[in-house]
Amino acid sequence: MTNQFVMTDTPTLRQRARQHIEAGAVTVGYGADREAVLTLLNGALATEIVCMLRYRRHHFMVRGIHSQAVAEEFLMHSNEEQGHADLLAERIVQLGGEPNFSPEGLLARSHAEYVEGVTLVDMIKENLVAERIAIDSYREVIQYLGNQDPTTQRLLESILAVEEEHADDLADLLFAMPPEQVDGH
């Protein structure tokens, strides 16, 4: 099977690059619906901010025999979620959008919930649920993008890998808890 794709000649590439120069990285070859991608990225940004805040609260509020190690894990996850938020905001700007950091409507834009949790097990479970939501959300956005925006796709794939690692870490923490605490008996 032969590849039917035809490469653009150099003079045409040069001429296109001079058109709409104010659009920065968004060239004529950008195949995605930019406004839809910006909306999706701002939803992901809100999700990361909510998750960062929840992890941060849990870091300070966790109590009990396992609290120190779990608090450290929560803080590490919080910092990684902040890093994801920064990457998403940077990509939004690259695409000519504005990252929405407004606290107003943050929970409505976020896919994840902000559940405080009372016990250590509650906190682990709520963070695990949020990670599972983020995993499915990122997978769907990646599928939506297809090959129309490979840069955003790669960014989301790298974030997805970390979210999967977080979910695995939390599942391990939950498994390490005494069964009576996990089952609520």
TrEMBL record:
<feature type="binding site">
    <location>
        <position position="163"/>
    </location>
    <ligand>
        <name>Fe cation</name>
    </ligand>
</feature>
<dbReference type="InterPro" id="IPR014490">
    <property type="entry name" value="Dps-like"/>
</dbReference>
<dbReference type="InterPro" id="IPR008331">
    <property type="entry name" value="Ferritin_DPS_dom"/>
</dbReference>
<keyword id="KW-0408">Iron</keyword>
<dbReference type="GO" id="GO:0020037">
    <property type="term" value="F:heme binding"/>
</dbReference>
<feature type="binding site">
    <location>
        <position position="166"/>
    </location>
    <ligand>
        <name>Fe cation</name>
    </ligand>
</feature>
<dbReference type="GO" id="GO:0008199">
    <property type="term" value="F:ferric iron binding"/>
</dbReference>
<dbReference type="InterPro" id="IPR012347">
    <property type="entry name" value="Ferritin-like"/>
</dbReference>
<feature type="domain" description="Ferritin-like diiron">
    <location>
        <begin position="31"/>
        <end position="181"/>
    </location>
</feature>
<dbReference type="GO" id="GO:0004322">
    <property type="term" value="F:ferroxidase activity"/>
</dbReference>
<keyword id="KW-0409">Iron storage</keyword>
<feature type="binding site">
    <location>
        <position position="48"/>
    </location>
    <ligand>
        <name>Fe cation</name>
    </ligand>
</feature>
<protein>
    <submittedName>
        <fullName>Bacterioferritin</fullName>
    </submittedName>
</protein>
<keyword id="KW-0479">Metal-binding</keyword>
<dbReference type="GO" id="GO:0006879">
    <property type="term" value="P:intracellular iron ion homeostasis"/>
</dbReference>
<feature type="binding site">
    <location>
        <position position="131"/>
    </location>
    <ligand>
        <name>Fe cation</name>
    </ligand>
</feature>
<dbReference type="InterPro" id="IPR009078">
    <property type="entry name" value="Ferritin-like_SF"/>
</dbReference>
<dbReference type="Pfam" id="PF00210">
    <property type="entry name" value="Ferritin"/>
</dbReference>
<feature type="binding site">
    <location>
        <position position="84"/>
    </location>
    <ligand>
        <name>Fe cation</name>
    </ligand>
</feature>
<dbReference type="InterPro" id="IPR009040">
    <property type="entry name" value="Ferritin-like_diiron"/>
</dbReference>
<dbReference type="GO" id="GO:0005829">
    <property type="term" value="C:cytosol"/>
</dbReference>
